[in-house]
Design brief:
Layout (H helix, E strand, L loop, with lengths): L3 E6 L6 H17 L6 E6 L5 H7 L6 E5 L16 H6 L4 E4 L2 H7 L3 H13 L3 E6 L3 H5 L3 H12 L5 H4 L3 E4 L13 H18 L2 H6 L2 E3 L8 H5 L6 E4 L6 H9 L2
Parallel strand pairs: 1-2, 1-8, 2-3, 3-4, 4-5, 5-6, 6-7
Helix pairs in contact: 1-12, 7-9
GO molecular function, one term: triose-phosphate isomerase activity
Main location: cytoplasm
Function: Involved in the gluconeogenesis. Catalyzes stereospecifically the conversion of dihydroxyacetone phosphate (DHAP) to D-glyceraldehyde-3-phosphate (G3P).
């Protein structure tokens, strides 16, 4: 079923001590304040912090542990990489795949991401699959064709049963870490388009039940307007997830 989700991507930030303090503050705030019981929260720290952060999350609660990436192979001689199986073994439930920074800085393409999706699903993880266009693509008015290609080549090879476990995140690259944010109308337009593509690739029920998040400089000030759009089901939050009050206020935006 379609869920409202707010996921915090810490990226390559936080020390052990800082991460412990931050997640403890978030847990206390979410438990103590009226943050809406229908909102699922995901925290995705750097790899070394996963077990520590996981132990600080209430068991059976609505705050879940996520990872920022995984390798496409289950095991092997891949120095410096982390398998989906290993992530699941330390308590991760979600994994972010296809983030624009992975695509841009590490050359991850649709073919590789399709393999990572399979690996994540085989390990029992829920992928948060990211799509989004650059400023140049938007200015050329090729946003929809570009995102349709990302969906088709990277995601739509999954079976109906596999696809049911996927969350999609739309992150306009031009709005990540820049302070710029897509307007609520721009976000809604692309989210609705993504839902249309899902209906064509699978069926109307799959489109209706898929959670689609917005990522791109979402913060405590603009989250309420973004989340009020009919096809925006939450956010993949970067910088604002590193501040407990801002992150909790975003969760409360629902």
């Amino acid at each position: 079923m379609r869920k409202n989700i707010v996921a915090g991507n810490w990226k390559m930030n936080m020390t052990l001590q800082d991460g412990q303090a931050l997640v403890s503050e978030i847990v206390n705030m979410v438990q103590d304040e009226a943050t809406g019981s229908d909102v699922e929260v995901v925290i995705a720290p750097p790899f070394p912090l996963l077990p520590i952060v996981g132990r600080l999350l209430p068991e059976g609660g609505r705050i879940h542990l996520g990872a920022q990436n995984c390798h496409q192979k289950e095991s092997g001689a891949f120095t410096g990489e982390v398998s989906a199986k290993l992530l699941a073994s330390v308590g991760a439930e979600y994994v972010i795949l296809g983030h624009s920074e992975r695509r841009q800085y590490f050359g991850e393409d649709d073919e590789l991401l399709s393999q990572k999706l399979k690996a994540a699903l085989a390990a029992g993880l829920r992928p948060i699959f990211c799509v989004g266009e650059s400023l140049e693509t938007r200015e050329r008015e090729e946003t929809f064709n570009f995102i349709a290609s990302q969906l088709k080549n990277g995601l739509f090879h999954l079976s109906n049963e596999e696809f049911e476990r996927v969350v999609i995140a739309y992150e306009p690259i031009w709005a990540i870490g820049t302070g710029k944010t897509a307007t609520s109308q721009q976000a809604q337009e692309v989210h609705a388009f993504i839902r249309e593509q899902i209906a064509r690739a699978y069926d109307a029920e799959a489109a209706l039940n898929t959670t689609i998040l917005y990522g791109g400089s979402a913060n405590a000030q603009n989250a309420r307007e973004l989340f009020s759009q009919p096809d925006v089901d939450g956010g993949l939050i970067g910088g604002a997830s590193l501040k407990s009050r801002d992150f909790t206020d975003i969760i409360k935006s629902f």
